[in-house]
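Just wondering, can you check both lines?
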Amino acid sequence: FIFLCFAETHGITFRIQISVKELLDTDVLLKLVFHLPVNYPSTLPDISVNSDQLTRAQCMDVKDKLLEQAKKHLSEPMVHDLILWIQQHLKYVIKQSATVCSEKTTLSKGASTEDGNWMLLLHLDHMRAKAKYIKTVEKWASDLRLTGRLMFMGKIILILLQGDRSNIKEYLILQKTSKVDVDSSGKKCKERMISVLCETKVQAQHKRFQTFEVKEYSTLDELQKEFETAGLTTLFSEFVPPLLK
């Protein structure tokens, strides 16, 4: 494979091209970029995946799987292991991606669009660069055609999203892998303190949000009413009160 390394002020970037004969005996050229931050390997690398032989969704799946593997090697050098892993497992990742695509096609043909609607509830610990963070979340929601709420109540920060399941998944990847905030020293950083409280199919009793809005609530009762109006009383009761403890 081709291997290039660039030293930078905030870490090191590896640009790697590997050829993998995994898909129908055809060579797949993967272009991988690993950006290692200064505190690597205690911090996960940023990973970018591109290939002329794969779709954008497949490249996103490869990136997602590499990040999953990277978490297993946290605090130890991992780039070489990740390259070996994707060489050995690319065909399985592609096959799984194709299966998901097939399932989505079947769903769109045999069911209504609403049957494909999913809902995601996230809890964020904090936002240091609040204005920039909000703008980023709004852009992602717009680009992925997701509706819902970004909700602030005291120190509680929640993101409630509705939309196509694949777009929900892509939002999660963006949220976990992009530099959306700043650390205590003001440097750009990824979101490390995020919790997926709930990911589920939108039910008949749930209200469909028509837009994505940013809202602030002065009391817990106001926040609860937002959930109740959307038919999400049970979701609120199960996940929000525990955040106050």
Residues 99-115 have pLDDT under 50 and may be disordered. The longest strand covers residues 11-23. The domain at 2-99 is CATH 3.10.110.10 (Ubiquitin Conjugating Enzyme).
